[in-house]
Fold this sequence. Notes:
40% helix; elongated; Rossmann fold; two-stranded parallel sheet; single chain; ATP binding; nucleotide-binding; ATP-binding; three-stranded parallel β-sheet; dephospho-CoA kinase activity; Depp_CoAkinase; mainly alpha
Amino acid sequence: DKVLAELIEPYEVRAAKLREFLEDVKPSLRYDIVPLADPYGPSVTDPDLQCLVVSEETRRGGEAVNKKRLENGLPELALYEILLMKDPDHSQNEEEKISSSSLRQRLLGTLLRPPRQDPALPSCPYVIGLTGGTGSGKTSIAKLLGHLGAFCIDADKLGHSVYVPGGPAYERVVATFGTEIVNEDGTINRKALGAKVFGNQEQLKSLTDIVWPEIARMVKEQIREADAQGNCRVPVAAQGWAL
């Protein structure tokens, strides 16, 4: 039930890092590294243990160990508490305590294994769909991918362009919803159109049935353009179509 459990390092890697740390601190130190199959490990069963090193954030765990030892008929361990330095790289999205969850947070976006060659996937273009509510970061991610060489398509902008005068959906939208949604300059009054469709599922479906297929067609056209230009990464920023 750990957060980002798939990013937990294998036991062998973690043991090797601990071994390197212990040998760096004191090469003559004698130690055993034991995998823990439960929250307590050998601390509640080993009669030879005398002391448990804890920190402020793990003291409660040490007290739980002693409680378990007493239940098992073993003497309590001396709890030696050490002070931990604050993490200088701690970010606001990470836990306050020093834990592996902070490391996993930093591993987000890291390649976990080499890319798998799948003959069922087209080699080019590779289309990425970005979706989410307002403020979820679609624009920021699209800009980042654009800086990396991707060809970006904004489905919202295409949605607005399909019903401008001369656009592929203009005539059908006007015919369906009436000339009262048309401004004096011939453009569609988005507020007037919105008043007709929002809150009315049938009217909204009529509008999306006209507009969405045109948006999809234009997206496909732009993907073909990107492919012709040699752009193999195509993020499509698509929250759906908005008025």
